[in-house]
Design brief:
Blueprint (H helix, E strand, L loop, with lengths): L1 H24 L8 E3 L5 E3 L15 H7 L3 E10 L7 H7 L5 E11 L5 E5 H4 L4 E5 L5 E3 L1 E6 L4 E5 L21 E6 L7 E12 L10 E4 L11 E4 L4 E8 L10 E5 H14 L5 E2 L2 E5 L2 H7 L7 E6 L4 H4 L7 E5 L2 E2 L3 H9 L7 E7 L2 E7 L2 E2 L12
Antiparallel strand pairs: 1-2, 3-4, 3-6, 4-5, 5-9, 6-7, 8-9, 10-11, 10-13, 11-12, 12-15, 13-14, 14-15, 16-23, 17-18, 18-19, 19-20, 19-21, 21-22
Length: 383
């Protein structure tokens, strides 16, 4: 036992002596990653990341996958002073020429054929549209078609070797899922921000006619319009469209059009030149206790019809003011937004069953929708 203890004490003595020698002559050896700056200051640096690896929890792979397919869009148009033709205005201020007004936004490359999806308000009224890719290439773009009711537009560029976004499934996302917003905010250059999906099915915001927004807290600012909202794998979930803000900048409430809607609009515009939607000719309203009492309706769910266009599809099928629509085909209806979306998705000319509550009775009306008329005025939120 004494021999073992003697051996142990000798080993400890040698190690302690070696430690003091190293600490005195080569202190950097005791600090892994220690280096000295040009001024001789001892610094600690993390070891280099092995090739091909990323930090735990990093979104770098998703950003690398999606970012090349997100473009910057610069627009310009000539504008005249609204009173430039007024003789009195010309007398005091002289002849006012046209001025160039610039615009900024983002877009997403959907196809190697050069089709780019962006917001309608980004390119609306533009005389010149220039697209800049993430690799620095630039090209003039032409408008293939627009859909103001969803605030989407399709552009086309003539370039080869185009990076294309991978489409995700916006119908399978859930509140709390991680997302990235990619665009060109304020024209500073392509930027990636992260957040989560805060809510789904946001509507009645007064932005578009058809609203079914994905809400996110990923930072979205002016210039992000038309950019990509992608999942943690870099697959497209939506087109960033609008923000709620009191300052003009991000306040953590942004809205994106689901990729399912974007794909439908793209197909319609490329195939037919416009989006074809169903229409039945009714004036819907949210069902309130006051309206239910006024029309004598014995139901507390659905959408009440306060007006029916004479000679329209609904009128021809027997619908009356005061009817409450609770289902269109196999889709239950609980608010006006759901009714608009369900009717818009119908194919003109094909009869569909509408479940209706009239007073205290239930009935089924077979309505053959027509084609939704082109709106003359659009309410678009610009950023």
């Amino acid at each position: 036992m004494k021999r073992t203890w003697l051996l142990f004490s000798q080993v400890v003595t040698v190690l302690v002596a070696a430690y003091f020698v190293v600490a005195t002559l080569q202190p950097d050896w005791l600090h892994r990653g220690a280096v000295r700056s040009n001024a001789g200051i001892a610094l600690l640096e993390a070891p280099p990341m092995p090739a091909g690896e990323v930090s735990p929890g990093s979104f770098a792979p998703a950003a690398r996958k999606a970012s090349p397919a997100v473009v910057s869009i610069n627009t310009s148009k000539e504008v005249r002073h609204p009173r430039s033709n007024d003789p009195w205005f010309q007398f005091f201020f002289g002849e006012q020429g046209t001025q160039q007004q610039a615009g900024l936004g983002s877009g997403v490359i959907f196809s190697p054929d050069g089709y780019i999806l962006t917001n309608n308000h980004v390119v609306q009224g533009a005389d010149d549209i220039e697209v800049t890719l993430s690799d620095g290439r630039k090209s003039q773009a032409k408008i293939i078609g627009t859909d103001p009711e969803s605030d989407l537009a399709v552009l086309k560029v003539e370039l080869d070797r185009l990076p294309v976004i991978v489409l995700g499934n916006s119908d399978q996302v859930a509140v709390g899922d991680r997302v990235l917003a990619i665009g060109n905010p304020f024209g500073v250059g392509q930027t990636v921000t992260s957040g989560i999906i805060s809510a789904l099915g946001r509507s009645q915001l007064g932005i578009n006619t058809f609203e079914n927004f994905i809400q996110t807290d990923a930072a979205i600012n002016p210039g992000n319009s038309g950019g990509a909202l992608v999942d943690a794998n870099g697959n497209l979930l939506g087109i960033n469209t609008a923000i709620y803000s009191r300052s003009g900048g991000s306040m953590g409430i942004g809205f994106a059009i689901p990729v399912a809607t974007a794909k439908m609009v793209l197909d319609g515009i490329v195939r037919d030149g416009s989006v074809t939607r169903g229409w039945v000719g009714v004036e819907p309203n949210e069902l309130s206790p006051e309206l239910a009492e006024t029309f004598g309706v014995k139901t507390d769910s659905g959408v009440i019809i306060t007006g029916v266009l004479q000679g329209g599809p609904a009128a021809l099928a027997g619908m009356l003011p005061g009817d409450v629509i609770v289902r269109v085909g196999d889709k239950p209806i609980s608010n006006v937004s759901e009714l608009l979306s369900a009717v818009a998705a119908l194919k003109p000319g094909e009869a569909v069953a509408f479940d209706v509550r009239r007073a205290s009775s239930s009935l089924e009306l077979e309505i053959t929708p027509g084609q939704r008329p082109t709106p003359t005025n659009q309410r678009i939120q610009r950023r």
